[in-house]
Design brief:
It is built from 13 helices and 16 strands. It has 474 residues and is α/β, with parallel strands linked by helices. It has an eight-stranded parallel β-barrel, surrounded by four helices. A two-stranded antiparallel sheet has the order 6-7. The longest helix has 20 residues. It is globular, with a radius of gyration of 23 Å.
Amino acid sequence: MAIPPLATLVLLVVLSQASCFANSQSFIGVNYGQVADNLPQPSATAKLLQSTSIEKVRLYGTDPAIIGALANTGIGIVIGAANGDIPALANDPNFAKNWVNANVVPFYPSSKIILITVGNEVMTSGDHNLMTQLLPAMQNMQNALNAVSLGGKIKVSSVHSMAVLKSSEPPSSGSFDPSDEMKGILGFNNATGSPFAINPYPYFAYRSDPRPETLAFCLFQPNAGRLDTKTQIKYTNMFDAQVDAVRSALNSFGYKNVEIVVAETGWPYKGDSNEVGPSIENAKAYNGNLIAHLRSLVGTPLMPGISVDTYLFALYDEDLKPGPTSERAFGLFKSDLSMNYDIGLSKSSQTPAAPKMPAAPSPNATVTPSPNATVTPSPKPDKANWCIPKSGVSDAQLQANLDYACGQGIDCRPIQPGGACFEPNTLAAHAAYAMNLYYQNSNRSPTNCDFSQSATFSSNNPSYNGCVYPSGKS
């Protein structure tokens, strides 16, 4: 067989890597709650998931029909031991062994179980007896996995609410209550390589501070940002601020290598008349912009260049949940498998029709929640080949432009660490590259070099050194 020339081999490698990047979004997961009486059959749900870019599913229990339906799909599965199981798991190693033999062994590896969560938000439950038994329960679960040679393949952890932090604002002040129980759990995560799973909800942060500027900060929309005076980092969205507060807390305990997993985050699309925040517009903005932010691989200020595994809440509405209407309105999909709203998860249309981005506000402007403001594109000069930011554009707008452009499926690897365009490592440089690439990949339509009137056309080539900005003739 003839050996292809070197140039052909290089091209094949590049195309292969680009394809893997476009299709690999293993950081996007979803919660599959079952407090409902109208859910689709597990087999239908498995097909639905395979039609999306969702690659991980978190169950709150161990429903064998669902675990079995996800066999041979390649979808990662998180299963859970309930809070009520913790005393038995803690006090009886045989209970843990039987639990693993019943809920893991019959399904693995065809069903890709990747994590077992022991309990949900136990450390903020107020039940001290349960809190003291959580670590022994996790240890016995780990030992049970080790006994069937799965200890290095399936991790064990627990899921925590943001209230487990005694301080989170600003993010650099993030810290845990230094109880023996918390220290033990963090030590377990560190020793076993298991993730620290947290439930950040910017929705609840907005609900407790329902101002327009808070809404923009929570929905990844342009805003004046919030400065962490200790680190001099200006945060442009609540999600990054909350995740970095957890990072700071872990670092303060010396656990810089413990991975963070966002076990739950979401926004309800409807609520009661006295509830602040629920709406389809806000839910679509939060979840859609979060997905774009994750796909951009920008990361958070304290964890740049990576996207934490993030499980959206939730796959379906759960009509039997008690409480206000919002508790039953977090679902991305209806029970008939249609979407409640489109955030670009479908493989057939990776992203929804590109929305107009909201205009960048002045620091004192009132920000409306609408992501659909009408804008007029700047005229395109006859010889313009590149789309770049206008001078004087705010960092908040540049960050929004960067998140949006990279979230549309373009290849933003050149501006990631080690990439040809990573240096200079500035927001302005990275946004300029991404904005131009998005414009060039969108048939160079003038409307795709608008970015809320923060972009302009240039005939001067912005390429430098080994960083090449694509261009095209008008």
